[in-house]
Amino acid sequence: MSDSKPAPMKSRSRPLAPPIPPYRKLRVYSVDPGLATSLKSREIRETTLKIEWEENLGLGPTGEYLEVIDVDPASGLFYPPVNLNDAYILAMDGLSVSEGNPQFHQQMVYAVSMNTIEIFERALGRASLWSPIDFRTLKKLRTSEEPKNWKDRAHWYLEAPAQELGYVQRLRIHPHALRQPNAFYSPEKKALLFGYFQATDKDPENIMPDSMTFGCLSFDVIAHETTHALLDGLHSRYTEPTNEDSLAFHEAFADIVALFQHFSLQDVVRSQIAKTRGDLKTNNLLGQLAVQFGQASGHYGALRNYITTQEGEEKWVLLQKTTEVHDRGAILVAAVFDAFLNIYAHRTADLVRIASEGSGILRPGELHPDLVNRLADEASKAAGHVLNICIRALDYCPPIDITFGEYLQAIITADCDLVPDDPMGYRAAFIEAFRRRGIYPRGIRTLSEESLRWSQPLPRHVELLQPALLKCIEVFGESMTNLARGNAEMPIREKLFRSSKVVQCMLHKIIEDLAKSFDKPDANPDGFLCLKQVLGIDLAPDASGKVPKFEVHSARALHRVGPDGQVKRDIVLEITQQTLYERLSDGQFVPTEYDDGPEPAPNTPAYYSKLLKMSRRMIFRGGATLLVDMETGKVRYSVIKSIPSGLRLKRQAEFIFGDHKGRSNNYFWSEEDEPFALIHSVE
User: Fold this and answer.
1) What pLDDT does 378 receive?
2) What DSSP designation does 217 have?
3) Beta carbons of 286 and 263 less than 8 angstroms apart
4) Is residue 359 exposed (0-12), middle (13-18) or buried (19+ Cβ within 10 Å)?
5) Fewest CB atoms within 10 A around its CB: which of 76, 138, 161, 200?
6) Would you tell me the crossing angle of helices 325-355 and 404-418 to the nearest 10 degrees?
7) Cα separations (Å) of 668 from 4, 613, 671, 672?
């Protein structure tokens, strides 16, 4: 027998590459740092967010959606950017929470902002886009002219550099931009700017006087400002103050998103359930926003508290008496939160009956941990459902001039669309809560689901548009395919942006040609009437045969799956039109023309003369949001704000030239439009 040993076996397989992680774990403050130092709150001071993994996340962090740039103008410092791909940072689930580490500040704004973006995308069923660069800025950036022929223009949209199109890939975040108690979203800069400041000595029991408070360390403040940017990406006209509700809606919606994110933080929810013995109508952290920010700026408590203001205060009932932006917005938030509280109570009624042996009154003392966990689970589920309902409703809102009542209609319509049956009574809870605060849509006779749902347009009104809409759906798919073939490395969000531009361009041409085909209003009055009834705009040509200007403001796809597996696939189209009005000496308003001449030099007689002229002018917009079935091309809903509406024109004029005199200047003269900077200041 041979003593030779067999040759070792050679492995023919290569070592498997580790799989790409599904998410990145990052630690953040779950409650404001000032609360985290208290013994009672220390156990819930931090949480770990699971953020979708970004393979090419750069320093800053800089990713697909966000770019954190940490420059401190007040101190003249540039803080080194954090590297979240560092092996040690990855091993620790991110940097430890710290008030004094600027790199943790960078980590926190990135994590909370991305978490907010992901909530939006799950609810809307598509990728989020930031609002494009302003047209005035875009004119300065373009090196080539946009083609006039619509076919050449469509091709140009697919091939032109992103900057030429106004595409904004990343929202910039500046954690230490301001040395003041403020934080705001800048539509002009496409950026979030957070402030820091020394606390006042008004509340030394809770806040150490002269201690430093950072807006970028407040989960609520970050989520609030990110929501402003996301909402602006969906409805860029909502920053225009056209009625008492317009800017208030922006503030309210940002608070709604920030408030209901509390319920995704399980440790916080369980602690507050245990503290309140399951009664979330009593004062607790879940209903408060920006506690430390409020205390440090002299508010003696949270910046906003939606628990203590649920009952008993007149301003929550008499909507017509409240005009300040935050106070008016708070009425809408209180209505939504009240709806949630009633839904939560309904979902947990059986648990309370079991625990109380049928009496409905829990025994004194601490709740059993199992009951706390079950109540917390139900609270988190209900809050998640309510937040999804509120976000989904944005696709069912008018493109301009939003009111609280119209938002209620959007909520009811969107939920009926996706969940035809409502066994838990969510829609009834919303209707009741809004009714209690005097929030009613105009022009309805009853507060029933049937009355609140947007009505579907008459078939004869949409027949003219159906072939055009089917073509749009086809082009949307074709443009995406062409982009995929020619630009394999192009991010999906940029593909969506370019495809939307193609659809907007083509639909504009089709509608314009359709209006021209009617020749004169007298020749085809039904044609123009149909377009008015569906689009809310006036396309009757003038004496020279020229069709009035209008715009296809946006085009976006909608893909949602309901709880029973039903799929909704729509295209959302927004068409708008504007008219410039001038107020005469007798108070009447007449249409006027824009001044196309060169801008006068500052501080000259011509400059002040134009300022005076502009102060008497007002932009009035109309249009519609269309929800179009992607299979049939039929318009399922048309949410109209009609341009010929004299009543709405009167209301807008009274608002702009009344108590809000001077706001119309924002439309024309501001070099840097910052509608949220003054609104968010607490000084």
Assistant:
1) 96
2) G
3) yes
4) exposed
5) 76
6) 40
7) 93, 11, 9, 11
pLDDT tens across 535-577, in order?
Answer: 989 888 777 777 889 999 999 988 877 777 777 788 999 999 9
Select from 31, 108, 26 the least CA-distant residue to 272. 31
Residues in CB range of 233: below 8 A, 6 or more apart: 128, 129, 130, 131
pLDDT at 39: 56
SS3 labels along 301-312: CCCEECCCCCCC
Tens-digit pLDDT profile for residues 36-68: 556 566 678 899 999 999 989 999 999 999 999
Diameter of the chain measured on Cα atoms? 121
Please calculate the CA angle 406-411-417 and round it to the nearest 5 degrees: 120
Q: Which fold has domain 247-454?
A: Neutral Protease; domain 2 (1.10.390)
At residue 262, the pLDDT reads: 92
How do the domains of the chain map onto residue ranges?
25-132+167-234, 247-454, 459-680
For residue 121, which phi and psi values (nearest 5 degrees)? -65, -35
d(Cα 306, Cα 317) in Å, to the nearest integer? 14
Q: Could you tell me the pLDDT band of residue 225, with boundaries at 50, 70 and 90?
A: very high
Q: 541-570 in b/e burial notation, b at 16+ Cβ within 10 A? A: beeeeebbebbbbbbbbbebeeeeeeebeb
Distance between CA atoms of residues 42 and 36, nearest Å: 5
Whether residue 624 contacts residue 535, with contact meaning beta carbons closer than 8 Å, is answered with yes
105 has pLDDT over 70? yes
Q: How many residues does the chain have?
A: 683
483-525 pLDDT per residue, tens:
766 666 778 899 889 999 999 998 998 888 888 877 655 556 6
Residue 84 and residue 55 in contact, taking contact as beta carbons nearer than 8 Å: no
Of 95, 79, 99, 250, the C-alpha closest to 174 is 79
Cα–Cα nearest to 407, from 622, 250, 557:
250
| CB atoms inside a 10 Å sphere around CB 13 | 5
| Domain 25-132+167-234: assigned CATH number | 3.10.170
**Chain mean position to CA 668:** 24
Rounded to two decimals, the pTM is 0.90
Q: What is the C-alpha to C-alpha distance for residues 532 and 539, in angstroms, rounded to an integer?
A: 8
ω into 61 cis (within 30 of 0): yes
3-state secondary structure 36-77: HCCCCCHHHCEEEEEEECCCCCECECECCCEEECCEECCCCE
**What's the first-to-final CA gap in the chain, in angstroms?**
96
> SS3 helix, strand, coil % of the chain, rounded to 5?
45, 15, 40
- The contacts of residue 657 (CB under 8 Å, 6+ apart) are 583, 618, 664
